[in-house]
Amino acid sequence: MSAFAVETRGLAKRFGDVEAVRSLNLAVREGEMFALVGPDGAGKTTTIRMLCGILNPTAGEASVLGYDLGREAGEIKKRIGYLSQRFSLYGDLTVDENIEFFAEIHLVRDFRKRRDELLEFTRLTPFRRRLAERLSGGMRQKLALACTLIHTPRLILLDEPTTGVDPVSRRDFWAILSSLLRSGITIVMATPYMDEAERCSRVGLLAGGRLLAADTPANIKLLMRGTIVEIVAADIRRAFGVLKKLGGVREVQLFGDRLNVVVDDPDKEIPILEAALSREGISVIQKRVLPPTLENVFISVTETSPSEAAHV
Fold first, then answer.
1. What are phi and psi of 22, to 5 degrees?
2. What is the spatial distance between Cα 218 and Cα 266, in angstroms, rounded to a whole number?
């Protein structure tokens, strides 16, 4: 039996002239939580939908839970759960009735005990007779996850499950995912949120349909070139324009009311940065050296050429 829940080799998908996914080589281990991270249009949803057997690849091959995606898609579908961006709950059915409906789809006959366990697990028991259309966004996502889990899949694929969900519900959803992981289930998720990716065992950075790197969050951060200096200045947008033009600066990234300036030698470069801003009448309120985040690394990696991008 393979130690990998998902393996792809040269997997690709083209829509007309658009290469949505380009020669994807990926391996997800049994029992891990793997995040596909990237902006809209990166190829995350297309990849998830191919792994579910919803979309046929243009090229390449893949195996899911040891079954060949091309020849045994039916066997794969029996053993996975899929939560799409727009999960089709039925608003005129109650929480109980929605779970029952999906149990019937998956041919789960004796589902009542499992349903009770899932309702308790997702803390939806008090709301089991409420219509789905009357649930909050976070509760709908928890119900959608319960429906996805009713047939006890070995692998679940989640496509941006917390997009549009309030912070409290998002935290609850992640607590549920952590519990699932401890039970031995494999989780593959697409997310645009770098803070969510930080919680995963491994992360794949996608941009333009291409896998730029795949490794643990800690190892991916080692791909960062240079050191990050955070600067808070009086006129942050003007400061951005000044430092963007300054020689010796690798990158300038704007995050709200502060700048992340990437330099090779902070001890040497910080005085130069301050002097450049001072000449323009911009005072520096705060400065400090920071460890890189996944977002910093993603910006850095996407600015390298494809041949320089790391495939791990």
1. -120, 110
2. 22
Tell me 41's DSSP state.
Answer: T
Output the 3-class SS for 33-50.
EEEEECCCCCCHHHHHHH
Chain segment 157-191, per-residue pLDDT in tens:
999 998 878 888 888 889 899 999 999 999 999 99
Phi, psi at residue 171, to the nearest 5°? -65, -45
Please give the pLDDT value at position 150. 94
Q: What are phi and psi of 43, to 5 degrees?
A: 110, 10
Residue 128 to residue 96: CA distance in whole angstroms: 5
Please give the domain boundaries of the chain with CATH numbers for all domains.
4-221 (3.40.50.300), 227-291 (3.30.70.100)
Quote the CA–CA distance of 164 and 139 in Å, as a whole number: 12
Place of tokens 């409290």: 168
Q: How far apart are CA 60 and CA 23, in angstroms?
A: 7
Length reported for the chain: 312
Computed on alpha carbons and rounded to an integer, the radius of gyration of the chain in Å comes to 23
Per-residue pLDDT, 287? 94
Q: Is pLDDT above 90 for 247?
A: no
* Structure confidence at residue 27 as a pLDDT band (50, 70, 90): very high
Q: Is 33 helix (H, G, I), strand (E, B) or coil?
A: strand
Residue found by looking up tokens 């919680």 in the block? 199
Residues 6+ apart with CB under 8 A from 98: 89, 90, 132, 143, 147
